[in-house]
Design goal:
By secondary structure, this protein is α/β, with parallel strands linked by helices. It has two domains: about 15-205, Class I glutamine amidotransferase (GATase) domain (Rossmann fold); about 225-355, Arc Repressor Mutant, subunit A. It has 14 helices and ten strands. It has helices spanning about 30-45, 105-115, 125-130, 150-155, 180-195, 195-205, 230-240, 250-255, 260-270, 275-290, 295-305, 310-320, 330-335, 345-350; strands at about 15-25, 55-60, 65, 75, 90, 120-125, 140, 160, 165-170, 170-175. A hairpin with a 2-residue loop joins strand 9 (about 165-170) and strand 10. The radius of gyration is 24 Å and the shape is globular. The N and C termini lie far apart (about 80 Å).
Amino acid sequence: MGTPPKPAARRSEIRPLSVGLLLAQDFTLSAFSLFVDTLRLAADESDYSRPIHCRWTVMAETDAPIRSSCGVEILPGSGLTDPALFDYVVVVGGILHNHPRANTTLYAYLHRAAAAGVKLIGICTGSFILCRAGLMEGRRVCVSWLHYQDFRDEFPDHAVIGDRFFEIDGDRITCAGGAGAADLAAALVERHLGSRLAQKPHQVLLLTPMRGSEGVQPHPPMAHEVSDEQVRRALLMMEQNLGNPLPIALIAQRLSLSTRQLERRFDAALGRGPADLYRELRLRYARWLLETTTRSVTDIALDAGFSDCAHFSRQFKALHGLAPSLARPSLRRETLPAPQVLTLADYDRAVTGNSECAGLRPY
């Protein structure tokens, strides 16, 4: 006779999720607090905060307080604990240029953790620290769009992603930071403890529904990398008025320029006219809404400043290469039928008859 199967483990018998946290000087407080608060709320029923299902330890080389980028200090709970006691060791970064380029004690500890089979996580610019320690070679690294170029400059041989909340590459995980830290923590809770405990923190913290590794970062402001002050100011006006687009002439007037002067400045700085770039900003915003929300195409078209859904669909496809309804991540993953050759008239009839676009007036 065979050995009878063991009974399924009860929830109380599941081993707690254990996390060790290392905070860089001038670390980002929001990324740290959202990550830890997600663990805290998943760790216990109601709001008792007992570390039953999840346990976390803030570690440091010394017992001195660690200063965050906003000035709030955190007192570490222990020294550098045996990494084998953790499921994950997390490095939370912060102000990029305040990180020391070499910290042999920290790097040695991270290498010990990796050798023990512990998964390593870099949050915010903590990913830079993992790379400086030589622990991300051949791995994909997720960073915030704000630090995308900084990363490419420092690590030209690494594969970098600047449009996702986090990236899981085997036993290395990197996260852009910010609210994405809560999504990453929830994904870890879901992996180890199940979806019920993973969903609770987002509900209690009044966050948007859990966004997995396919979640898309908000589009970066185009003005960030423009040197011409007048063009940068114009782009900021556009980005602040996506739903109710300003006439280009009004933007020029607010900058004490003629429309023609503004167009020449845009062409010199970006090689394109202001109207084209304004439309692209609105269409990029629309795609972000399609990929990160469940709102209807009609609502998103309106939010992006389009009152004609057929026109919105044509412009969206011209820029992104697919119809708005196919920009949903779940639809893009489905197996599509063999492609059909459609005429422009066929396409116009299809989008005009889309029930999602009902109620929008044509131009």
